[in-house]
Each structure stands twice: as C-alpha cells, then as structure tokens.
Amino acid sequence: MLKVINDLLHNLPTGILITDKEQSVVFECDGLSAYRQLPLAVALPTNIEQIKTILTICRKYNTPIVTRGAGTGLSGGALPLEKGILLVLSKLNKILTIDPLQRIAEVEVGVRNIQISQAADCYNLYYAPDPSSQIACTIGGNVAENSGGVHCLKYGLTVNNVLAVKILTIEGELLEFNQSQQGIDLLALINGSEGLLGIIIEVTVKLLPKPPKAQLIMAGFADIVECANAVTNIIEQGIIPAGLEMMDKFAIEAAEAFVKIGYPLDAEALLLCELDGDETQVRVDIEKVSQILKAAQATSITVSTNEKHRLDLWQGRKSAFPAIGRLSPDYYCMDGTIPRNKLAEVLAKMAELSEIYNLRVANVFHAGDGNLHPLILYDANKEGELEKTEEFGQKILELCIEVGGTITGEHGVGVEKLDSMCSQFTAPELETFHGIKKVFDQQELLNPGKAVPTLNRCAELGKMHVHNNQLPFPELERF
Amino acid sequence: MLNLLSEQIKDSKEPLQIVGRESKLKTSTNKKLSIADYQGIVSYQASELVITVKAGTSLQELQQVLASKNQMLSFEPPDYGNSSIGGTYACALSGSAQAFRGSLRDFVLGIKIINGEGKILSFGGQMMKNVAGYDVARLLVGSKGSLAVIAEMSFKVLPKVTEATYSIEMLEDDAIILMNKWAATALPLSACAYYQGKFYYRLFGKHDKQQAEEVDNKIWQTLNPFQTTEKEFLWRASVPSTTKKIANTVAIDCCGNRRWIVSEHKPDLAYVEKWEKGLAISKSVKHPAQIKIEQGLKKVFDPHGVYHNKL
Ligand SMILES: Cc1cc2nc3c(=O)[nH]c(=O)nc-3n(C[C@H](O)[C@H](O)[C@H](O)COP(=O)(O)OP(=O)(O)OC[C@H]3O[C@@H](n4cnc5c(N)ncnc54)[C@H](O)[C@@H]3O)c2cc1C
Ligand SMILES: Cc1cc2nc3c(=O)[nH]c(=O)nc-3n(C[C@H](O)[C@H](O)[C@H](O)COP(=O)(O)OP(=O)(O)OC[C@H]3O[C@@H](n4cnc5c(N)ncnc54)[C@H](O)[C@@H]3O)c2cc1C
Predict the structure, then answer these.
(1) Beta bridge partners of B202
(2) Which of A220, A400, B39, B209 could form a disulfide with B56 if both were Cys (CB 3.0 to 4.6 A apart)?
C-alpha cells in the first residue's frame, strides 16, 4: 500500500478514509459527469483537526488534494485526481449560529444552501443567493464558485452575501477573512477561487428579511428580439426586478410539455419577471412593467394571482433543464455571459451556428444579467456528433468574448473551460493568476491543474487551432 | 496616456508614489506617479447599469454623469470636493448605505491596472456575472497604491432613489437594538445611525408617514467619514452591529457596524484604525500567516517594489 494512504489510515479515526473502489465510485465525478476519475482515496473528515492531519500528511508526500462539497459543480472543479486525495466536506454540516438581530448565520462549510434559509425561516429571514441546485449544493461549493441564482440581479451573488470565511491554508493555518479587515480584499479573492487557494471551513452569511410580497409577470413575444428589448426597457425605466428570466421557443415547448402550467406555446420567446417588496411598491412596479411589456409588443401577459400561481409559473423555468433533457439523449450546458444589449445579436448568431452545425440549441437564461445557458442537444452515440458539439460550444464562448462578455458567469472554469481561458486572458494576466496561486500554495497541492490553464497549454492550443478530440463530452447530471 | 505611465514605471529607478487628485498625500517625498490627468468616462450605457471610468475622474464628475441618467453609485463614496474615483477605489471608501446596499467592492465589475512591471492587465469586465479567473478586481479594492495603478474601473450602477431622513431622540443602547430590529423588517431602509442623542434613519421610495422628525439628508455626510476637532485621537471601529454602547463613542453609523470613537488610547477592539483627515492612518492587527500572504501578493503584482506604498 502507498505510504501516504498508510499514514492517513494510521492517523485518522476509522471510517474517515475510504480506499475501497466500490465506495469511492460515487465520488468519481461532479455534475459534469463525462469526466470521471477515481482518486487514491476519499477522505470524509468530521472536524478541523482531521483535516489538518490530512494536510500535514499530504504535504509530506506531495500528494494533491481536491476539495469537494456536494459535487454538483458543472465544470469538473471537484473532479478527483488519480494521484490525489478527494477531501469531501459534507460532514462538516452544522449550523453554528443564527443571530436574528444581527441578521447573520455562521455555518460549517458542508451545510447545504437551502438549509440556511430553512433555519432562518422562523425569524422571517433568508439567505438570498439561490442556485437551482440549492437543495443539494453546499455553502462551501457556493463560495468556491461564487455561485449565482435567479435572484442575484437584485440581491447579488455569493460574494455579495458572505461576510466572513474561515479557511485552512495548505500549511494548516486557520485564517479568517472578513469584511471588517482593512486593506486588500482577501475575502473577495476566496470567492470563486475554485478550491485552489485554501480549504474553506466556515462561512458567515448575511440574512435578509423576506419580502412581504412577490409577484410574477409572464409575457410571451412573437419575436425574440422584441423580448430582449423588453428586458432592456424594464431596467432602463429604473426597475430592478427580483428575477428576470427568458426562454426561447424550444425551451418553452419543452417546459410546457413537462410541467403543463399554461406557457404560451405560440410565443417565440417568454419573459418571466418577478417583482418583490412591500405591497404598494409591488403594485406600482407590476403596473409599470405591464405597460412596458405592452409597449414592447408582448403577445400575452399573465400576472400571478396568488402565491401558488407564482410558484407554478416558475416551475416551468426551474425544470427547464430536465424538460429539455427528455428530448435528447445528451445535452451540453453553456454558461457564457454577455452585456445585456448584445442579447439579440448573440441569439441571432447562435441560431445561425445551430443551422451550420445542424444541432438544436435551446436557450434558457438569466436575461437580467446577461448570463446565457444555451443547451446544445446532441447524441453521444452518433459518430462525430461529440466533436461537432464541442466545436459549436467553443464558437458560442468565442462569440461571448467577442461582444465583450465572459466564458463563465457562474459555473466556473474547472477542467471544462481551461481552453477558453486562453482566449479570454493574455499571458501576463494568466501569470498573475498563477502567481496568486503560488502565494497561497507554493507546492501546488490544492486542486492543481484546474481553473487556470498553463501558458504551455494555451500556446499549444494556438498551434492546434482549437480542435481537440481528447476531451469527452459532458452529459449533465439531472437534479 | 496609459502607455506613457507604463513607460514611466518601467524606467523608474526609484520607488514611485501613486497619487490621484492628492486630496490626502501631501507629506510623501517620493517621486510621484500621478493618475489625476487620466480622466473621463470610457463607456456608459444606462440600460446596462454599467459605467466604465478612468481613475483620475473626479467623483463629482462621475456622479453628475450618472445623475443625468437618473442613476447613482450605490455605495455612497464620501467626497470632499476633489477625490478621484481611483483614489476612492484604492482606499475602499464607502458610505452609510453599505449595511443595506453594499460597499464599493460589491459594485465592482472589472478593472484595468498597470502592475509594477508596467504591464497593462484587465480583470473582470462589464458583466454582472463573471467567474473566469480569480477576482483580482475586488482584491485590489483597498490596495492603497501598493500593488498596482488602478487605471480604469467598471461599476454596477443603480437607479437613483428618492430618500428622506428622520430622527428620534433615544438612548444609545435602545437605538442600537432598534436599528437592528428594523433592518430585519420590510421597511425600505438605506441607512441607520446614532449621533448626539438621536437615532437617525433614512428611507427610500414610497413609505407611510413616519412618527419621527424629518431632517436634512446632509446628516449622512457629517457621519461619513466622521471628523472631529477634539484633541484626542479619532478611531473607527468595525464591530458586530448589535454591540452595546462602547465608551467614548461619538457616532454610530452603518446600522451599528461602524463606531467612531474619540479617545487618547486605542480602544480594545478587534478591528479598529486611527483616522485623521478622513483616512485611516493605522491598521488593525493581522495574523502572521495573513501578512505573509499579503506580502506574497505584493510580490506578484509589484515584484521589484516600484510602488512605494506599503500594504
Ligand atoms: C441542476 C443543477 C443546477 C445548477 N444551478 C446553478 C445555478 O443556478 N447557479 C450556479 O451558480 N450554479 C448552479 N449549479 C452549479 C453548482 O451547483 C454550483 O457550482 C455549486 O455552488 C457547487 O456546490 P457543491 O457543494 O456541489 O460544490 P462541488 O461541486 O463539490 O465543488 C465545486 C468547486 O468548489 C470547490 N470546493 C467545494 N467545497 C470547497 C471548500 N470547502 N473549500 C474549498 N473549495 C471547495 C471544489 O474543489 C470545486 O472546485 C447547478 C448545478 C446543477 C447540477
Ligand atoms: C470625508 C473625507 C474627508 C477628507 N478630508 C481630507 C482632508 O481634509 N485633507 C486631505 O488631505 N484629504 C482628505 N481626505 C482624503 C481624500 O479625499 C481621499 O484620499 C480620496 O478619497 C482619494 O482620492 P484622491 O484622488 O484624492 O487620492 P489621493 O489622495 O491622491 O490618494 C489616496 C490613496 O490612494 C492611492 N491611489 C490614488 N489613486 C490611485 C490609483 N489610480 N491607483 C492606485 N492607487 C491610487 C494613493 O497611492 C493613496 O494611497 C478626506 C477623505 C474623506 C473621505
């Protein structure tokens, strides 16, 4: 047996380390399940001391560590390394304090996103960022990815709602970064660091009062450009909706077939706009938005009549991925973000590409903040279709960069978007990232090889001209 | 102009002191690298809620441009006439609304910088959401001219709101509890403070008539940052919002999170800095491992120590 495993087994209580292949297999991938790899061993520590022990031993043997929360990530961030330990933190799952007067919650890192809101519910408070995976994903994963959700247009991303984090450095030093500290913003740096800088142990989050009223307004459009323009008009009028989501015809049809809640099947595009706040404000805003939608040529407008109706109308959007998943053996979810005013242009180009590649693409997205989730439908069993899909996907990301956008709005780079990072950043910018990594982790033991491509990789890619067959194609886990 | 600055940095034989509009740094004897002339709006599209601005632009100009489209900087940076947005960013200056709307770093979308090797680099962008690469843009908020020249910044901006301020006389501890209680309700608060025996709160948008005296919104400028004519030192402490009355406190801001204290000796609190002329001149104690990280980062951005300022 390997020395590192031996050492770990000796120094950890029984049951913490899993070396058995059968038990490890559930950890071999995250939400991007086409990438699979068994680690040397899986560690499921129950306290900080055990994690420190693991760090000490891994340092000694130069063994890399991949940290994992719930494994719902969509970019392969928690993909194990063949010669590494997978450090699963789901057992650090205690809510340490809820302070209703201070409106904060202090939680261990393995607490699931939804649990925080559930625990705060009795005080009429909640934790705002709500990724669609919130019933499963951990707060640690949320911080590591700086996750967003349907409501982040108004309430911000994870980084805007986290007040403090405690991390263990690779050296085993426990540090707290918080918003009270002067000087450079290390707390912000940890958000979105994809497990490369430190192991997040505890998180303090902001709790917000639940808005007394929320109402949803749904509008169908005969033209997707008109719908995109309506999004711009709403924001131009000084309204910041709690959620502003858009779906194209294909997505509307798939969702309606799946949940049957009365989405307009004749529409080319659908807009869902949620307004929240106190009664008067919501009434005023609903009236304003209705006017804007009418002026923007909406073909149908539905306003939710009660709480159940509101949730029903959301249901279609929330089940869009599985609904589309039913229509195709495989699909590939993209995560590009673009300036809002380029929406119409990008959608038109995407439709052209869809014809060229002869692959269907459904669009559901966080229109309010320009975060696209195009889903490319394909069949992995068809000869050559994987390669075609990948090329199509790359083209979409290039398009995003071209119009001043980014390759990932919320899912992270992980292993999946390493190549696209080469298009988005220059060599000195990537060097800065590598420099930051080394400051925290000189030996490069924490999630090495993820999130930031090496300069060599980018150089080779330049020569190869973006055609690589080595990457298999993702079929998403469906929750 | 950026290329010119870049050349200046590359050629420099002595440490450089980055300066904005120099509303603060008059004492330094170091060679100056002035960003003040790098001014203007790079791009602004109100419907995108995004503005990109050059670092030397005065806060006043920036705010006027936004106001013309009925928008604002939600983090309420303090302005005493001639601050630059770059200096504001470098000093992480935010105002009373931060407990409710967030502070400067919450509105940062991207930056263009010049590092200590004179290289022009961009991080983040103009999108509301962007998780490609580490968040260098936010990291540099509060870097005080120690890591890089901040050349351009993109901010998320928000529709301007109409606000009204009210005050009620009460005891300090009662006010601390009340502001925290109210913050947990749907009341449209944008600031809460306690000053000279009165609880002050500010509401935005439409709301019912208040059982309190309506006062001028200017009170928030007095509080942010607080200045004093007393002989003893002025300290700014960051504390949990519900912390009970602290001795020698002269004002409470940011819904209880920020306490201004006048005393000869340093108050015994975890996060407290000495303030003079509106800026921190001392720092709270940090963990040695954190200091090591910060010094390491200084080397990443400024390997030859061209920028004079310490972290
Ligand atoms: C159906 C579905 C819907 C989704 N919807 C959304 C959405 O709406 N918005 C969104 O943003 N994302 C969404 N995601 C993506 C995913 O849920 C988020 O990225 C989530 O934050 C991951 O949390 P996790 O606990 O599963 O992390 P994991 O997948 O286990 O890990 C993610 C990354 O974080 C690192 N990490 C995890 N824990 C720690 C820690 N304690 N310390 C340091 N690093 C750590 C890992 O190394 C890895 O790089 C969705 C995923 C699925 C499957
Ligand atoms: C309420 C209040 C009252 C004040 N009163 C006074 C006063 O009475 N007298 C006074 O002298 N000052 C005063 N100041 C300080 C001054 O207004 C702030 O320094 C200002 O906000 C910063 O803008 P600036 O252009 O003046 O920066 P500067 O004063 O030129 O620089 C401030 C700091 O930021 C760094 N910096 C500036 N621009 C950049 C950049 N582009 N990139 C990287 N680093 C940069 C500098 O290196 C320096 O560390 C006051 C500030 C406030 C908030």
Answers:
(1) B165, B191
(2) B39
Q: Residues A390-395: contacts with CB within 8 Å, 24+ apart?
A: A390/A332, A390/A471, A390/A473, A391/A357, A391/A466, A391/A467, A392/A353, A392/A354, A392/A357, A392/A359, A392/A361, A393/A332, A393/A334, A394/A419, A394/A420, A394/A466, A395/A353
CA B180 to chain centre: 22
- Percentage of chain B with pLDDT > 90? 80
Q: To test ligand 2's pocket by mutation, which of B17, B22, B23, B26 has the most ligand atoms within 8 angstroms of CB?
A: B23
Each residue's pLDDT tens digit, B277-309: 767 777 778 999 999 999 999 999 999 999 988
DSSP states of chain B: -HHHHHHHHHH-SS-EEEESS-SS--S--SEEEE-TT--SEEEEEGGGTEEEEETTSBHHHHHHHHHTTTEE-TT-----S--BHHHHHHTT---TTHHHH--GGGGEEEEEEE-TTS-EEEEE-SSS---SS--HHHHTTT-TTSS-EEEEEEEE-EE---EEEEEEE--HHHHHHHHHHHHTSS--EEEEEEETTEEEEEEESS-PPPSSEEE-TTHHHHHTT----SSSEEEEEE--TT----TTEEEEEGGGTEEEEEESSPPS-SSEEEEETTEE-S-----HHHHHHHHHHHHHH-TT--B----
Does the structure show a pLDDT above 80 at A373?
yes
Supply A216's token pair. Answer: 């949803």
B25 band by pLDDT with thresholds 50, 70 and 90: low
Verify whether the Cβ–Cβ distance A185 to B147 is below 8 Å: no
Assess contact for A191 and B131: CB atoms under 8 A. Answer: no
CB B259 within 8 A of CB B239: yes
CA A112 – CA A118 distance, rounded (Å):
10
CA A30 to ligand 1 centroid distance, Å:
9
pTM: 0.94
pLDDT tens for each residue of A206-239? 999 999 999 999 999 999 889 999 998 999 898 9
Return mean pLDDT, chain B.
93
Site residues for ligand 1, CB cut-off 6 Å = A 30-31, 66-74, 77-78, 89, 109, 131-133, 137-138, 140-142, 144-145, 147-149, 194-195, 199-200, 321, 410-411, 447, 477, 479
Q: Distance between CA atoms of A88 and A44, rounded to whole angstroms?
A: 5
d(CA A471, CA A318): 29
ipTM > 0.90, yes or no: yes
Residues 6+ apart with CB under 8 A from A343: A228, A231, A367, A370
Which of A166-180, A240-254, A330-344, B147-161 has the least mean pLDDT? A330-344
